[in-house]
């Protein structure tokens, strides 16, 4: 599903990602952990080409991304992004649209889905994330956890094959975190391929099939969560999972 | 709204205060002849813009013209010196009545209206009203121009004649451009006195003056009602100048001497005094019509400014170096020069190449000008949208254009709504400037009414009332929108 080969990303003279190579199979759930500034977000954002990279190659959901600002032509990029959804830390809902309209916008505009069809699908997705009764609510009328669930439904509406989460629960208090983790658990059960940058230990240890530890632009450790918790190889992983033991 | 009502009350009190203060400082009028003799100087009001042959500054900067000669001669015969003070021509009579100078001598025509409001000296010049048409046009008399557009200057005897002639009147403030517009086909005829017609009209390419005088009239010196002894003195001086040939010498020097000067003098001012006019239903209806013009102009101009401003803002934010620079130059050009200048350039400047009508020119200029201001408002609003919005749109597969159309612009317009409402109120007020290109809107109607009613206060207050009736609800709307926006954003930040 995802194949990253010798990916390099620089900002000026600083190397942000150094020769990252990794593969993710369909249905895998990868938790990405590591210290702040290590390059986790940058890696995720390269995967749907929100950022371009300097060297290497990315194959994802049947598309190939090459180095440089262009990376791929605009139509390919648009199609790729419907196959690779993204959920942000600050959820980034469109404040001028209702929950339902947030979800139907991209299917209607990008894929040309008829409005009534898109609305039916959106209602089903809202029910799936436990917000079946809030279709007409505006973002500012929803709690943070509810907004993040709408954001997940919005990403799902494009029928993606991969979902990228960048710290989806970091801006939420524990109760709301539970709501969002429950939705992710449901997606995992349905076999969705997911990459999740997270500080939430439960996501890394209970939900993930694999954990990447990223530090200073490289994947310093890659293995099943149980192995990382019981026998961490790197100091970063030891620091990180020390709390979990 | 309590705040709105309190503001209105404060405004009313301020106006009342201004009226009282003005009343307390009323100048001591009358006895002007004695004051002139004590001072050794008679001051006269005139407008230098009148130009040749009335009065103008020659290349050495000296004030010359036949009216300068007339006033110098009159002053010499009163045993004093004459000093000219420059004012806008249309304001000369009101300022005379206020006491800003002793007399008016500047192509002031004797009319029943004026005779009812000030004292008029004996004539120093007999003029003819000359009708000018486009060369080859079929019109031979004023009567044949019924329903056509005829131009003249504001507050002239020609205007009085046109009001009774059943023509559509176009009011100008400048005698240079009026014949340009006749040649361009913006008006069908021009009625002005022969002094102006001979200098500016009859030699103009594409313009023909009709040979018959439409009417005759006289230029007189205007004197305050309180100063009959000054009128007697000036009349005596003028009579002596006629008798000893000095007046003829002055007029010959200015190439103004003609057969009319020795023929019987028309008694224009001697007609029945005009009925005293009051501010009533007729005036109110005219103000309402003018308010509609103001509103219509402003709405049309804003409908042009909004989309153009949006395009400019998008050009500045996303257009890259070249498009961004083009948008920036446009904005700086239109914001960095006065609207009045832009109106002149678009209407009169472009006239010879592309003669658009005054209303079109007004809407176009105001719209293009306000687009520059709107562009900066929208640019600010676009930049205020959090980056995450565009990223979320992009991550969902929306193209840059789709993202602008569905995500960025709708939010930016919401943010921009309060400043836009305020801009529209400014536009309502700025639209008063279009009277310089002959559009009669609210402020112009006020000056017309004040001339008819011989007072500025009532028409001025009526005009202010009309503007407030248009702008106060809009300002209130802007305040509500601002409050709602602030509330939404607070809720959003939770
Ligand atoms: N636009 C940018 N310009 C310069 N440096 C950047 C930019 N974006 C990110 N970085 C740097 O790249 C590094 C990795 O950032 P990021 O991927 O956000 O890390 P993480 O998500 O692991 O905290 C950080 O040191 C950050 O300062
Ligand atoms: Mg990050």
Overview of this structure, please?
The complex is a heterodimer of chains A (245) and B (494). With 245 residues, chain A is an alpha/beta fold. Chain A has one domain (27-50, 74-244): Rossmann fold (3-Layer(aba) Sandwich), CATH 3.40.50.300. Chain A has helices spanning 40-47, 74-83, 99-111, 115-128, 144-156, 174-189, 201-207, 225-230, 235-242, and strands at residues 2-11, 14-24, 29-33, 55-60, 63-65, 84-87, 162-166, 193-197, 210-215, 218-223. In chain A, helix 3 runs parallel beside helix 5 (144-156) and helix 5 runs parallel beside helix 6. Chain B has 494 residues and is an alpha/beta fold. Chain B has 3 domains: 29-123 and 220-270, 3-Layer(aba) Sandwich (D-Maltodextrin-Binding Protein, domain 2), CATH 3.40.190; 125-217, 3-Layer(aba) Sandwich (D-Maltodextrin-Binding Protein, domain 2); 281-485, MetI-like fold, CATH 1.10.3720. In chain B, 58% of the residues lie in helices and 11% in strands. Chain B has helices at 2-24, 32-39, 66-78, 92-98, 112-117, 157-163, 177-184, 194-201, 228-243, 246-253, 281-318, 320-335, 339-349, 358-384, 387-395, 400-430, 442-453, 457-493; strands at residues 41-46, 56-57, 63-64, 81-86, 103-104, 119-120, 125-134, 149-153, 168-172, 189-193, 207-209, 215-219, 222-223. In chain B, the strands form 3 sheets. In chain B, strands 7, 8, 9, 10, 11 and 12 form a 6-stranded mixed beta sheet that branches. The mean pLDDT of chain B is 88. The structure holds adenosine-5'-diphosphate and magnesium ion. Residues 40-41 of chain A line the site of magnesium ion. Residues 11, 16, 36-42 of chain A line the site of adenosine-5'-diphosphate.
